[in-house]
Write the structure tokens for this entry.
Amino acid sequence: MSQESEDNFKVDLTKCHTDWDIQTKIKRGVWQFLVRPIYRLIPFGMSGLRVAILKLFGAKIGQHCNIQQRVEILIPWNLDLGDHVALAHDVKILNFSKVTIGSMSIVSQYTYLCTGTHDTSDPHFTLIHRPITIESEAWIASGAFIGLGVTIGRGSVIGANSVVTKDTAEWMIYAGNPCSALKKREINRN
């Protein structure tokens, strides 16, 4: 182990902390250590039970939503889903701030929605967070990363493994790292 003097460090993680009120700390503790382990064990085909547990912990979830197994949600009371929203298996939602997903939207497997980061210029590495909004009729394909403060425009498609750090326009298809517009999304009504 290095014997560097603390006087040589520009970053001091000993003073890093998050200002949660006591009620939030208790709710997070109950969720993380008592309920979440049970929630994670709910088998395939029992989306309704997952929805009921999330609602019990303050999530706002519309009608006919499908939340598949192993969907990780850090803070249920910061989740707001419209009607007919699908969260595929192994989606991770790190929602220090509100995550809103509009009706008729799909978030595919292994996608990561991250509302938080750290202030890299702060010597105490303070947590900062901003909400994520996915508007109605959007599709976030497998393995995408959606960063803090991003709004995915209505009807947008985000390609697999894309990294989105800026808002997207409505009814466009995006892909890449960094994510960029590819073409307009057209819906055939045959």
About this structure: The chain has a mean pLDDT of 93. The CA atoms of residues 34 and 74 lie 13 Å apart.
